[in-house]
Amino acid sequence: xxxxxxxxxxxxxxxxxxxxxxxxxxxxxxxxxxxxxxxxxxxxxxxxxxxxxxxxxxxxxxxxxxxxxxxxxxxxxxxxxxxxxxxxxxxxxxxxxxxxxxxxxxxxxxxxxxxxxxxxxxxxxxxxxxxxxxxxxxxxxxxxxxxxxxxxxxxxxxxxxxxxxxxxxxxxxxxxxxxxxxxxxxxxxxxxxxxxxxxxxxxxxxxxxxxxxxxxxxxxxxxxxxxxxxxxxxxxxxxxxxxxxxxxxxxxxxxxxxxxxxxxxxxxxxxxxxxxxxxxxxxxxxxxxxxxxxxxxxxxxxxxxxxxxxxxxxxxxxxxxx
Length: 322
Known about the structure:
The chain is mainly beta. It is 4% helix and 46% strand. The chain is globular and about 55 Å long. 41% of the residues are buried.
């Protein structure tokens, strides 16, 4: 059984949600108690979108800080905290922190044996041309890789790491350029800085077409409960820990991102992706708030369902004048 995280499914549904009347604060009707039937996993609980004036030319680096208040044991929860989704040279990317990462052995990927590494980090990219392979990912011994087409044509690297509650900085950095079939390609590496220990962890690197990197200038974060073959039942809502996740200090090429808007979106109603499959929906489990300058977003996990009216799709920053 493959990991049922959002991957290409949520990339599409996130785009749908971001384009859906995000400026209104009129909530849609919703129950005030637990739904009669819970949606199947993954539960894609919230999307946070940062907008900027436009693309970042001559892209060399992206970074964002993540503060995690509470340990999330992997034997109880499949939690994905993703601080970034965007595009580099028109290729969709995402990555982040997982309580249960898995994949093929990076040193022996051809056997396609799925290994499970517990807590870890992930960095993935997609292509519209069905041209990705294991050759497009660099990983470390003990890491995992995967290249497949079951959720769109993607390639991914995962790095097991026993992260705990604390502060982390997730970075993407343009690395070396090489020729492949006479055409230039550039490797982009994912790195995590663990503030409590001062460690810098290499997650993996992915190969992108071109010798000049351009980021589309948009970023999204999300939180999700997903499914794996080892843990595939929804979490016990009443016993969820008081998790608080803060996303902050979004930067491009070492400078603070020039924000124009920050918004929150929730996928609550059934909708179809462009390929006809269902987009991942979620019961209401996350409250969201923003700092006055829009540069710190706080997501608080709840241990009880709440009505849509408490968290409508809305612009978080700039705040409307009262």
